[in-house]
Amino acid sequence: MKSEEEVNINLDHISAGLKLIIAARQRESLFDVADYPEINNEARYQLKEGCFYDYELSDDKFQLGDVGENIVQPHKRNNRFGTLAPNIFAGTLEIPVFEKNCELIKQN
Question: Which of 83, 89, 21 is nearest to 50 (CA)?
């Protein structure tokens, strides 16, 4: 498992060129297991419980949806930016991606 300061997640399956950028606020808290996630049935990108992360969607036509527990905290003025706060959440987190002023596009 490789520790990263930032990951860029390709969301071309939602919209061409769309990316979700997640940046760790604390060292050794964001991981990319690109080489072997399927071996242990794990998610490729892993966040650490109790840590905070900044996120950004590359296209301002999109925003992340609410998954409850105040995990996704969009910025007040521009909701393509915000904070991910997994707190004590454990397991695979699926975050919906919305096109602003439209219906749910797809689950991330």
Answer: 89
